[in-house]
Design the sequence.
């Protein structure tokens, strides 16, 4: 009886927490639900998928959605739903490693540049700008051409693309943190540069980096799919949303689901991670939220006694949207 | 260099599509901030921001070329040879590239407009009795376009970079397709030349946006 009451209490507490999250942080909530949905399907793909993604069944090729194959079959009779679920695994894996490479590389370069200053800063940041000047997809394609076409190289190429964005963000955040009094105090008590960077600065710059990592994650999913679409990422028969769309293109007249299902799943995943990033930014960076709220407090063209010239929300929005995920 | 006009045309048309969607939608969203139209525009930007351009291209081919059969699925005819055929071949690629790019531009336009609509000179204009539509479209829009133009120029460069997949899907003989040909044939001089061409255009657009005389425009229009 007591155990049942405790369970009921726990359930009601979880429900009220979910309700609170939905009311207060709607964007974050929707993003988290979608992102968890896609990530869970990737992690538990072998338990969820009814068929193996590699099982060829020529007798049942290009079959429309039915009870046995919910989302139809492809040109080799493989189950589209199962392949779509397994493809999430590749995307999540590539995006996780690529973002980790970009985040770690960018944070190290950015924080070292900011704390060293002078020539080191100049050289490192000019190098980053050099990388930044190439369009992301083009750089990824060229890197894949040089490195060779496989998943590991796709992770590396996408990770390298993210390094300049993260390094610029880390540099700016480190510069801000280095001016704070707690860093001066750390210097005063004789802490070494490295210790200050790791113990004092890093924990204080992690918030914007996490927010950007989420948005970079969504972009990494698109980049991986783009590379696979061009035949430079995951190689058939390994399922990837990109190569599924690419191979399905030739059969769209007879089997339109081949051009819809993988893209729709990718869209849900990217939307989830984008919203999660936006929601986290609102949650973790209240200054941004307040600035926008402040600027928009007045109804349409009304006359709030407030001027947000200069670094207003438009600049913030542009900065945040462009910083990493290009 | 023979392929550059194809890519430039595609990027330019996509840029026009992106602006045609972003400017009015962003301005209307800001004008009706936190009302139904704003939510619709924001939702549209969120959805477009999550769509991969090659998937949108696939969907557009499926709908307009395979189902409705009103537009061709791919190919290229020079604008000098047959302008109407050229345009009909370019509509779907331009929409695929432009619609996806409009997501970022819409958000920037909306945020810029919201920022401007609470500034003192707008309040003055309203106090002087100017009509709301004049205040929004004449006074506010000009200043709201400043951050938009800066990002827009960079976006043009990035559009140019994003043509590789779209040119491949729609069989357009542009620089992007040349990049792929270079990779498939392991023809590194071709790959290098085509990549450098794209990068030069991207850098030109970026430099142009950085040298944009934002402050003087702001000063002039105030």
Sequence:
């Amino acid at each position: 009886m007591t155990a049942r009451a405790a369970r009921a209490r726990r359930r009601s507490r979880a429900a009220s927490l979910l309700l609170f999250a939905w009311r207060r942080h709607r964007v974050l909530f929707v993003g988290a639900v979608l992102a968890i949905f896609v990530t869970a399907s990737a992690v538990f793909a072998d338990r969820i998928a009814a068929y193996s993604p590699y099982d060829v069944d020529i007798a049942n090729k290009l079959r429309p959605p039915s009870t046995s194959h919910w989302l139809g079959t492809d040109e080799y009779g493989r189950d589209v739903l199962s392949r779509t679920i397994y493809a999430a695994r590749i995307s999540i894996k590539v995006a996780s490693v690529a973002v980790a490479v970009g985040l770690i590389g960018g944070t190290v370069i950015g924080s070292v540049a900011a704390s060293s200053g002078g020539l080191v800063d100049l050289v490192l940041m000019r190098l980053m700008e050099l990388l930044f000047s190439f369009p992301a997809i083009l750089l990824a394609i060229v890197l894949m051409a040089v490195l060779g076409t496989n998943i590991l190289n796709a992770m590396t190429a996408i990770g390298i693309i993210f390094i300049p964005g993260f390094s610029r963000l880390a540099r700016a955040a480190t510069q801000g943190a280095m001016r704070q009094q707690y860093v001066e105090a750390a210097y005063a008590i004789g802490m070494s540069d490295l210790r200050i960077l790791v113990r004092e600065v890093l924990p204080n710059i992690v918030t914007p980096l996490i927010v950007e990592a989420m948005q970079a994650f969504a972009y990494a999913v698109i980049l991986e799919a783009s590379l696979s679409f061009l035949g430079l990422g995951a190689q058939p028969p390994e399922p990837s949303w990109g190569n599924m769309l690419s191979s399905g293109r030739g059969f769209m007249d007879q089997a339109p689901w081949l051009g819809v299902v993988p893209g729709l799943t990718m869209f849900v995943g990217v939307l989830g991670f984008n919203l999660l990033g936006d929601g986290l930014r609102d949650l973790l960076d209240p200054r941004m939220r307040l600035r926008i709220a402040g600027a928009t407090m007045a109804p349409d063209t009304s006359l709030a006694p407030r001027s947000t010239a200069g670094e207003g929300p438009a600049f913030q929005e542009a900065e945040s949207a462009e910083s990493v995920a290009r | 260099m023979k392929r550059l006009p194809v890519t430039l045309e595609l990027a330019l048309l996509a840029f026009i599509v992106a602006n045609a969607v972003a400017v009015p939608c962003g301005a209307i969203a800001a004008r009706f901030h936190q009302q139904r139209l704003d939510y619709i525009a924001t939702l549209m930007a969120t959805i477009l921001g999550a769509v991969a351009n090659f998937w949108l291209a696939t969907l557009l081919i499926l709908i307009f070329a395979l189902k409705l059969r009103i537009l061709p699925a791919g190919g290229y005819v020079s604008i000098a040879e047959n302008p109407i055929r050229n345009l009909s071949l370019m509509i779907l690629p331009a929409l695929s590239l432009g619609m996806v790019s409009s997501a970022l531009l819409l958000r920037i336009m909306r945020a810029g407009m919201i920022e401007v609509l609470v500034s003192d000179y707008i309040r003055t204009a309203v106090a002087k009795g100017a009509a709301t539509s004049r205040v929004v479209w004449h006074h506010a829009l000009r200043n709201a376009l400043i951050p938009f133009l800066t990002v827009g120029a960079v976006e043009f460069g990035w559009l140019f970079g994003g043509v590789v997949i779209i040119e491949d899907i729609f069989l357009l003989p542009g620089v992007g397709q040349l990049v792929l040909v270079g990779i498939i044939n392991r023809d590194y001089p071709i790959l290098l030349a085509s990549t450098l061409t794209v990068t030069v255009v991207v850098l030109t657009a970026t430099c142009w946006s950085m040298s944009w005389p934002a402050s003087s425009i702001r000063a002039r229009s105030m």
Chain A touches chain B through 58 residues (CB under 8 Å). Residues 292-315, 318-326 of chain A have pLDDT under 50 and may be disordered. Residues 127 and 308 of chain A are 34 Å apart (CA to CA).
